Amino acid sequence: MKPLLLLDIDGPLNPYLALSGPVPDGYTRFRTRPESWTQSPYLPVLLNPDHGARLLGLTTHFELAWATTWKDEANDWIGPRLGLPRLPFIDWPEMHGPAPDGTYWKTQYVVAYAAGRPFAWVDDEITARDTGWVTAHHGGAALLRWVHPGTGLTRTDFEVLAGWADEHLG
To answer: Treating both helix axes as pointing N-terminal to C-terminal, what angle do 107-114 and 128-137 enclose, rounded to 10 degrees?
Structure first.
């Protein structure tokens, strides 16, 4: 069984800190309206269509899944714009709730979802505390990859993910 590649949207795929400036090279601005969005008529996102092909290229190493507050709506608003098929998603038992040992609220649920299976996780809110907690509470190999929310996933991130899979899971 392949390891999981757990994908956050806001930060890694949608470099939201870049929304206030010119659209970064390779990105396109889209208007979305997920059900949970109530702050304005639409939610702008920046997506790089090349990321879809790069993620699909990683499926030789990984099984892709969403690890985002968009949950299944990622399959409606984000995946099609990147050329991704419908992906499984983590259905968070509680969003933005309490977390153990000062970790990010998603971390405990990511570990539960992986259920001992090796995984890589890309997110803009993970820290060294999360990495330490995963090491102590997850029985398999894990890579937590922080992605800058102003740049999104880069070529280096894709290379690190593929390299980690080759090295740890051969």
So the answer is: 30
Residue 23: count of CB within 10 angstroms of its CB: 11
Beta strands of 33-95 (E only): which ranges? 43-47, 63-66
Contact 51, 74 (CB under 8 A): no
Q: Which residues pair with 45 in a beta bridge?
A: 30
What is the rounded distance in angstroms from the CA atom of residue 62 to the CA atom of residue 33? 29
d(CA 161, CA 157) in angstroms, rounded, equals 6
The secondary structure of 8-23, three-state, reads CCECCCECHHHCCCCC
What is d(CA 28, CA 84) in angstroms, rounded to the nearest whole number?
Answer: 16
Give the N- to C-terminal CA distance of the chain in Å, as an integer. Answer: 12
d(CA 58, CA 35): 30
Reported as a single tens digit per residue, the pLDDT across 33-60 is: 877 766 768 889 999 999 999 999 999 9
The answer for residues whose C-beta is within 8 angstroms of residue 97's C-beta and 6 or more apart is 105
**What is the gyration radius of the CA atoms in the chain, in angstroms?**
15
Q: Which residue has the tokens 């999360």?
A: 130
Q: What is the pLDDT of residues 57-83, one digit of tens each?
A: 999 999 999 999 999 999 999 999 999
